[in-house]
Amino acid sequence: MGATPVTGRIIRDQTDLAEGTTYLAQVEPRFRPFIAALEPLPLRLKPDGFAQVLFAIVGQQVSVASAEAVWARLVDVGFDDPSNVRQASEADLRACGLSRQKVRYAYALAEANIDYAELREASDAEVIATLTSVTGIGLWTAEIYLMFSLGRADAFAAGDLAIQIAIQEIFALNARPTERETRAIAAPWSPWRSVAARLLWSYYLDTKQREGIR
Fold first, then answer.
1. Going from the N-terminus, what domains does the chain have, and what CATH number goes with each?
2. Residue range 19-26: average pLDDT?
């Protein structure tokens, strides 16, 4: 048997999600009724690369509708390409709806010259280290990129508010868990924590009628 790839399991289709939910039902029986009610879980897979990371930056601390409107303007003038962002003036980027802070983040990402193809073969820790070294990119954004742009099966956004609320309700906790507590709670769900995140987001959407993520 060959060595396990450094990237771990990759989620590519519903078969992978089904394998993950089967495992989660075994290790955490309290998930079982929600798995039955919410399957099939959404894949949510997206392309990788500069545009996806910039889109995540655009969406920070704004509504989904606002983020999508700004993103549409950026794409329309070609600012989903790093070379075009590097050549753009601050006024050009501001005209698309970016705040001054996000303009700074966009420049930082474009100047970082990240080898996104190389990230496909990097470990989760290496991907997180590379992305969070860029101004404006935090752990949440890096973990979302791991889950949905790279399909990593064991990535988990413990700092996500919707995930924390879902855990509080499913596990009948007295308070919403902190990021550290959420990460500890999720540890037994490895190597399928990304599937658990999809389940928790689906629960949040089903009960709150609000998308936890875009």
1. 14-44+154-208 (1.10.1670.40), 50-143 (1.10.340.30)
2. 98
